[in-house]
C-alpha cells in the first residue's frame, strides 16, 4: 500500500514535517531537511509510538521527539492507532475502556481479563499497520534504515520488536497495562532495549514493569527509572533515550556521543 | 588535617595525577591541567568511592573514571578505605569477611547480622575520613565545588549523602550488601541520585537494591539498570553517570550535553 503525502511544511529548525495517509490511516513523517538534498545518504528511521489519545492531542509531544530525532540525523514517523483520533471507534475496545472505568470507579481490581480486552484487540490491529507503514516509509528515497521503535503502548512495541526483523533497537515506555501474552512475547525479544519506567506512575503496576524488563531475552537492555507520575518524564530521560538510539542507529559515531 | 602531596605526574590526556597522604591515609587526586593555570576558576570535585580491594588493584578503573571527570572539567579524588590496601587490617572486619566466606561456602543464607558486621564498622570509619578528605581537598586552590560522590560501597555513599551538605549529587552503585541501617539512612537522603544496578549481579540482592532505590527521599532519582554481572557495567552506563554529574556539578551547561 503506497504512502500518500497530503501536506508538507518546514519547521523552524530544519525539520520537514509531512502529513500522509496510508489507506485510511493518517500519519506524520519528519525528516531532517538535509536528507532531501540531492545525493544525501538515506537516513535511519524511528517509528514513534504513542498512547491512544489520538495524534492531534499527542502532537506537541510527538513533534518534540521528532525534532530530537532529526537533530541526530534520523527521520521519524507515526501513524494514528486503530480506534483513536479521527479513525472509526472499535466497539470491543470502547466496551473494555468502559469496563475499566467501571472497576476503577468502584475501587475494584483490574483483572487480567480486562487488561486483555483493553489491549489485545488494539495490538492485533496496530502491529500489522505499523509493519505496512514501515514497508511504505522505507520506499521513500530519504529513508534507509536501520529502524528503531520508540515509546507508546508497550504491548505494541514488544510484539513489533519480537516479530519485525527490520527493527534493530527499541525504546519502550513501561507505562500501560501489560497483558499476560506480552510477557510471553517479551521472552522472544532479543534486540537492544531501553526501557523507561516512571517509578510512581499512578497508571502503572511497578512490579509488572520490573517483571516485564526481566522477561526480555535481549543481551543489552537498560532500565531507566525516574521519579514522578505518568507524564512527568524528566528531560534527561529523553536525552538518555536519544543516546540509546544514537548508539544503535548511527553506529559509526563515537560510542557515548 | 592538611593534605600532603607526595608525587605529581601528567597523564597523556591533560590530566594531572597527584598522590597524597592525609595523616596515614593514602589518596589520589586528579585535576584537569587547565585547572592549575593562573586565574583559572576552581573546578567541581567528584569524590570517587570504590570497593574494599585496595587502591592499587582498583587503580585502572579509578583512573578511567578520573579521566572521564577531567574531560568534563571536574577534579576527582579518592582515599584508601580503612582496613584495605596498605592500611592496617581491622580485626572485626577480617572476622566478618571470614564469617561471610564460611556461610557462602556452606551455602547458608547471609544473615542481617553478618551484613551488619561486614559493613557498619567500615562505614563508621570511612565516612569521617571522607569528610576530612573533603575538608582538605576543598582547601586546594584548584578545587572549588560543588562536590559529587560516585560509586563504591553503597552504605558509605548513602551516609555521606545523608549527612554531608557539601555533597550535592551522588552516583551510587547498588552492588554490595545493604545493612538495615542503610535503608533508614536512605530515607534522609534528599539530593539528586543516579543509581546503577547490574540486573544479574551475582553478589547483589536485586530486590534489596530496588527497595533501597524506593527508600531514598530524593525528588530526583534515576535507576539505571543494565544486564550483566558485578563487573560488567557497560560503557554507556558510565556515560549516563557522567551526564548526571554534568547536569548537577556544571549547571551552566546546556541540559542534555
* Assembly context of the chains: homodimer
For the biggest β-sheet of chain A, the strand order reads 1-2-3-5-4-6-7-8-9
State the shape of chain A.
globular
Q: If you consult CATH, what is the topology of chain A?
A: Rossmann fold
> Number of helix segments of chain A?
7
> Would you state the CATH class of chain A?
Alpha Beta
Strand runs of chain A, count = 9
Helix content of chain A: 25-40%
> Which pair of protein chains has the largest interface, and what are the residue counts?
A-B, 28 and 27 residues
Q: Describe the sheet with the most strands of chain A.
A: 9 strands, mixed
Order of helices and strands of chain A: EEEEHEHHEHEHEHEH
Summarize the structure.
2 copies of one chain form a homodimer. With 257 residues, chain A is α/β, with parallel strands linked by helices.
Could you list some keywords that capture this structure?
alpha/beta, Rossmann fold, nine-stranded mixed beta sheet, homodimer, 7 helices, 257 residues
Task: Please tell me about this protein's structure.
The structure is a homodimer of 257-residue chains. The longest helix of chain A is centred in the middle third of the chain and has 26 residues, at 112-137. The first copy, chain A, is globular and about 60 Å long. The first copy, chain A, has a single domain, classed as Rossmann fold. In chain A, strand 4 (43-48), helix 1 (55-71) and strand 5 (75-79) form a beta-alpha-beta unit. Chain A starts with a strand and ends in an 8-residue tail after the last helix. Chain A has a nine-stranded mixed beta sheet, with helices on both faces. By secondary structure, chain A is an alpha/beta fold. Chain A is built from seven helices and nine strands. Chains A and B meet through helix 6, strand 9 and helix 7 of A and helix 6, strand 9 and helix 7 of B.
